[in-house]
């Protein structure tokens, strides 16, 4: 995922009700690959590969511009999806991964989720205008992609297990 702390205000009203991961410690983010590797597969060599793939990309700005809906999902889309798509493809390539195991096609739209899942599907038609209006107050919003992170769900919620900065690694 690409964490987007600047986007947290967009999620305050919707996450508790319509984003199952929000109450479990996951920050505002754009998912590039889910699921990633199983816990045992994210070894030192895999982390080094992930670090190398991330380092090949300079940090970049993401302009979140509008609320969109698609396939039981309400989300905020980016003005330019190209850098996110390229970064996601580079991160997946070493392992031949497909986002969401192909449920939404080979290259789903990179997005910031506002609402999804079964609870959302049952109330989507009635609540989409209200949620969209609340989120739209924060748009457009500019966020900086500076790293990719791998998160795992455990017994007490989600936790970051690896962070790979974008751009070349600098000597300390």
What does this structure look like?
The protein is an alpha+beta fold and 172 residues long. The chain has a single domain (2-165), classed as Alpha-Beta Complex (Cyclic Phosphodiesterase, Chain: A). The protein is 29% helix and 28% strand. The chain is built from 5 helices and 8 strands, in the order E-H-H-E-H-E-E-H-E-H-E-E-E. It has helices at 8-11, 15-18, 44-55, 82-92, 118-136, and strands at residues 2-3, 29-30, 60-69, 73-78, 111-116, 141-145, 147-154, 157-165. The strands form 3 sheets. The protein has a 4-stranded antiparallel sheet. Strands 1-2 form a two-stranded antiparallel ribbon. The radius of gyration is 16 Å and the shape is globular. The mean pLDDT is 84.
Question: What descriptive keywords fit this protein?
Answer:
single chain, 172 residues, alpha+beta, 5 helices, 29% helix, globular
List the SSEs and their pairings.
Blueprint: E1 2-3, H1 8-11, H2 15-18, E2 29-30, H3 44-55, E3 60-69, E4 73-78, H4 82-92, E5 111-116, H5 118-136, E6 141-145, E7 147-154, E8 157-165
Antiparallel strand pairs: 1-2, 3-4, 3-6, 4-5, 7-8
């Amino acid at each position: 995922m690409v964490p987007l702390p600047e986007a947290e205000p967009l999620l305050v009203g919707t996450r508790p009700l319509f984003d199952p991961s929000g109450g479990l410690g996951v920050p505002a983010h754009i998912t590039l690959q889910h699921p990633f590797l199983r816990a045992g597969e994210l070894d030192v060599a895999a982390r080094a590969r992930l670090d190398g793939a991330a380092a090949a990309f300079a940090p970049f700005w993401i302009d979140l511009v509008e609320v969109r809906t698609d396939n039981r999902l309400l989300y905020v889309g980016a003005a330019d999806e190209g850098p996110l798509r390229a970064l996601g493809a580079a991160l997946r390539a070493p392992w031949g991964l497909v986002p969401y195991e192909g449920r939404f096609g080979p290259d789903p739209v990179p997005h910031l989720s506002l609402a999804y899942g079964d609870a959302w599907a049952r109330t989507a038609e009635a609540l989409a205008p209200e949620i969209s209006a609340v989120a739209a107050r924060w748009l457009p919003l500019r966020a900086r992609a500076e790293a990719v992170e791998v998160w795992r769900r455990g017994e007490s919620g989600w936790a970051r297990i690896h962070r790979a900065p974008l751009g070349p690694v600098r000597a300390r």
